[in-house]
User: Which sequence fits this backbone?
C-alpha cells in the first residue's frame, strides 16, 4: 500500500494510519457504511483518477481488498 492510499483510507474511515493494513476487516470500522463507501469511492477517484464500481467496493471485506481494486 502506498502512502496516498493509507492517507485516504485513514481520513475517510476515520481510523489511525497504523490500523490501515491489508488484513483490517472493514466490518470493524464504524464509518464503513453506505456514506463511508461513497466517501472512499470519491477520494480514490480524486486521488487516483479511478472510478470504482459500487458492486466491486461492496464485495470488499478488508482494506487489502480495496487496495487490490486500485492496482
Assistant:
Amino acid at each position: 500500500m502506498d502512502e496516498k492510499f493509507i492517507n485516504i483510507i485513514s481520513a475517510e474511515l476515520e481510523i489511525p494510519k497504523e490500523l490501515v493494513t491489508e488484513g483490517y476487516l472493514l466490518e470493524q470500522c464504524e464509518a464503513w457504511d453506505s456514506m463511508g463507501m461513497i466517501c472512499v469511492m470519491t477520494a480514490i477517484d480524486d486521488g487516483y483518477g479511478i472510478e470504482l464500481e459500487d458492486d466491486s467496493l461492496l464485495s470488499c471485506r478488508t482494506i487489502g481488498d480495496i487496495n487490490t481494486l486500485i492496482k
User: Anything to note?
Assistant: DSSP finds four helices and no strands in the chain. The chain has one domain: 3-69. The CA atoms of residues 60 and 66 lie 6 Å apart. Residues 34-48 form the longest helix (15 residues).
